[in-house]
Design a protein that fits this description.
Layout lengths: L6 H14 L4 H10 L4 H13 L5 H14 L5 H10 L4 H8 L4 H18 L5 H14 L4 H12 L2
Helix pairs in contact: 1-3, 4-5, 4-6, 7-9, 8-9
């Protein structure tokens, strides 16, 4: 990486960075700081990226929520926490969660929990329950869903 970038060079580089995948403001600002741009230049570049539609927090939040749920099988709690970590406001977080239909959420959860429950080889029932619950709590699913599903799976 170069030691010094002009605003034009930095803008071109960041446009490519944003075109590759949706980015949030925080990621772009971190990248610009890494490129040793000063605060005024960063603000100028971000404004230009927004104007040219390279940077759109709503689009980022929606695609983030869809992707993390469908590909990584994250629950809503984990998605919300990760978006908050990226300094996305609550209104956009709510819009992002609307990208996941309740039917899709439930279907993915049930399929994933069934596979995981059957993959656990633990013979001690209490340890198996703990491993199951911990795993899905880390993935960000709601505890009431996990406990209800665990009881269903135990009775199969």
């Amino acid at each position: 990486m170069k030691d010094f970038y002009t605003i034009k060079e930095a803008l071109r580089k960041i446009e490519q960075y944003c075109a590759y995948q949706d980015r949030c403001h925080e990621e772009v600002m971190a990248k610009l700081r890494e490129m040793k741009m000063d605060t005024n230049e960063i603000e100028q570049i971000i404004a230009q990226l927004i104007a040219d539609n390279f940077l759109n927090e709503e689009r980022f939040a929606r695609s983030f929520a869809r992707g993390k749920h469908r590909i990584k099988h994250w629950g809503k709690n984990r998605i919300v926490n990760e978006l908050k970590l990226r300094k996305i406001n609550q209104t956009l977080i709510n819009l992002a969660l609307n990208e996941i239909s309740p039917e899709e959420y439930e279907e993915n959860f049930n399929t994933f929990t069934f596979k995981h429950w059957n993959s656990l080889t633990e013979t001690n029932q209490m340890k198996k329950r703990k491993k199951f619950c911990d795993y899905f709590l880390r993935r960000g699913f709601e505890s009431f869903l996990i406990y209800d599903r665990m009881k269903e799976l135990e009775n199969l």
